[in-house]
Amino acid sequence: MNKNWKQVSGNIKYGEKVPYTFGEKVTGIPFKIEVHIERKNLFNKNEKVLAATLIVTPRTKNESTIGRVILLNKEKANVNTAKFNESLTAEARTSNLVGKEIIFYLWEEGATEDKKYQKPKTAQVDKYGIARVKFTLSDYATPQTLMSFFTGDDNVTKKFFVTASYQLKEVTNKTPVTVTEQQQQQQQQQQQQQAETKKKQSGPIEKLTEIVLIGVVKTAELFGDKTKTPTSIGKAATETKEDGKCPRCEKVTLGELQKIFTGVKNSSDLEEIVTFFNKGAKYFGINTCLKKAHFFAQVLKETGNTLTIKSPESMNYSTDALKNGYWYSKGANWVKGDIRNKKGGYYANGSKKSSCNLSYFRSHPDIAEKYGRKDLNKYGDKGVQVAYEDMLANYAYSDKYGNGNVESGDGSKYRGKGLIQLTWKENYEKVNNEIKPFDPSVDIVSSPNKILTDKKYAVYSAMGFWKWKKISDVIKKDKSPDIVDKVTYLINKDDDTESKKKRKANFQDITSKVFRIDECEPSVTQPAKESSGKWHDPVDNPQRTKYNSAGNIKPVSGAYGDVRNGYTKYHSGLDLFALPFIKGESEGTPVYACLDGEVVESTPGNSAGQTIRIKIENVKDLLEQEKKINYQLEFTRGEEKGIDIKEDDNVYFIYMHLSKRVVNSGKITAGTLIGYSGVSGSIANDIPSPHLHLEIATVQNAYGTGKTKRTNPARFIKLNSYNTKDQDDAVNYKYDQNGTKTKWNPPKNDQRNL
């Protein structure tokens, strides 16, 4: 200010408040505001006299925003309609993000949350604050939409949205692009475009600075910047919530984590966890209170309440623990170690037994003796020999799942690290692939030790693992503590009983209460079921198998009826495409109970492999489902309807070829995870068309009864299109029940008309 300004008190007179928004390009450039007073001069004429000047330098307060996102056609016009094979440009208008990367997602109306964030594209914000990417609509359509267009259905109309995202800031175009093969009239396009321009764009509400001066402000002399990316300062942002959306779902707070990790003394450590988790919550699919409760219950078990991540998985095992597979950490009558003969001490009468799952050393006791810990006067004192942890890891984790031999050092390099103890190089690579589209700067394969020192690496490695294993798909909306065991299986299938109990207790007693899951009802976490409330499909996204066991296109071969060997051989169930157990890649496709009932048999099986039989509790629920589906035979030859189920029948659902069974007996409810699909059994092993074989019968074991006791399961399941990339990719391998897949060249002959 110049010398004419002075501080005043008392009754201050205020003039007009004039808000002004500066463009981003003038950030940091000083502007002069002049205040003039109008008064009479000596000749009694009005004149304006300069009273004061004010220098204003626009600043941003470091707030970055995405103002809006639009779609443009090849003429760079804002569009609301497009043809199916057309390429569009997505354009995000931003503030304070020059040089930063924006992630774009194109998605079809009705897509579930996990489907919205597939095939992302990135673009750097240019000097004008704009980021652009190109999309081809056909690359982002669902299989059902693809089929509709390719089969020439001219009446098909689909709507697409684009979302632009930078960390937690996310904006979606409010008016969708309508995709159709029919020609839209120019007048309709113009009306839609006019409606779009009148709509108020959403996004972070930008802040304004109000400049208030006593006197008259010559606003006309403030020349505006016409940049498309305004930098706005000062006005408080308002938070808008989606209808029905829990306001706590998508973020964690410092206070919440302090209640979970009570042993953390430095709050800044937790603040970093909060920051990076919140940035990735939506992308990695851990964005509901329930999913957060499960995630942090597992993290609490892996790291303890001190959130210890600075050290890798402990290999501080005693020689006896390594050789025997267990050890006693408490007991009576301590037998002292022997330094001269290098013998470790131990409890003669143990009272607390713990397991060691490193089976390598049980068959290599000499390595255990050489590198294991040996205590002297008390448990854990290392008085005879310390554990050579790096060497133990190199031996335990060598020559499998992407790790090299002992000399490579991969065992130690890729042993358990982070919030969820990630192990094996192959797993590091798969998790890294999940992280890269979100944050290309993170590389846990080339820099695995950063997981121990960099909170971003620690958080994203755990969240990437969660996304890779599709753990949120298992949780869905089920608040039952029993889901913890299913989550634990995906994280550590070899977990011991005590550890499983601890994880469940973490969820029940701590994280479920901290995140208040009973008060939360997310808007949409799963697609609406295509059935009554009591029905659950046997697998997610059920689709019949497209290929037969010879690698040819013949979906009828997986249907019910005389569909094989030239329509002379009976197939007693329905084959639903399901990727099997693959070592280091997949546990198999989750398989669910379709209705409430009782597990009457769970067996390793023989020719049909691992099998579960469930007796349905209320047959009326099954008949209601049949009415809802109203299935018409899909194939004119071979496929049959099967027997009609009556309400007084005993009905059994029979699931075959499983890779793992997680239920053995007892009552069960619809939607309960009962196992994972596989290719077990002699009739399913070593095939390119992995599937769940499902039968529905009126007797527990229908073997030998032919068609007299069975019905067509397709009568009760809403089947999706089998023309999917997943099936086209899967047929390029043969799968065996040991978890090995072998590349081959399938013929892929189209035999649908044979």
From TrEMBL:
Q: Name one GO molecular function term.
A: metalloendopeptidase activity
**Annotated CDD domains:** M23_peptidase
| Matching Pfam families | Peptidase_M23 (PF01551)
Q: Name the Gene3D superfamilies on file.
A: 1.10.530.10, Glucose Permease (Domain IIA) (2.70.70.10)
- What are the Polar residues biased-composition ranges? 542-551
State the residue spans of region: Disordered. Answer: 523-551
What SUPFAM superfamilies does the entry give? Duplicated hybrid motif (SSF51261), Lysozyme-like (SSF53955)
Ranges of residues in domain M23ase beta-sheet core: 637-699
Name the PANTHER family for this protein.
MUREIN HYDROLASE ACTIVATOR ENVC, PEPTIDASE-RELATED
Q: What is this protein called?
A: Predicted chitinase
Task: Please name the source species.
Answer: Chryseobacterium balustinum
